[in-house]
Amino acid sequence: MLLEEIIERIWEINRMGITILIIEHNMEMVMKLCSPIMVMSEGSILMKGDADQIRYYKRLLEDYFGE
pTM for the whole thing? Predict the structure, then answer.
């Protein structure tokens, strides 16, 4: 699948010691690739942390806002 291929290429580049900034809406991909993760909205950082922290915070928002 194309997504797995993209993820593998990003990991290859990162293993070479290159830092990568990823701006992406696919949170599954972001959770696999990134640490730390920053979630932004309209130019402001809403949350920052590792994948587990972001998952927990996302659940709180969904419960609070009913999404």
Answer: 0.68
Whole-number Å distance between alpha carbons of 41 and 10: 24
HSE (side-chain half, CA atoms, 13 Å) at 49:
10
Q: Which two tokens stand for residue 53?
A: 């922290």
pLDDT tens profile 19-61:
989 988 888 888 888 889 988 888 888 889 999 888 887 776 6
DSSP 1-66: -HHHHHHHHHHHHHHTT-------S-HHHHHHH-SSEEEEETTEEEEEE-HHHHHHHHHHHHHHHT
CB 67 within 8 A of CB 61: yes
Is residue 64 pLDDT above 60, yes or no? no
Tell me which residue has tokens 């990823």.
22
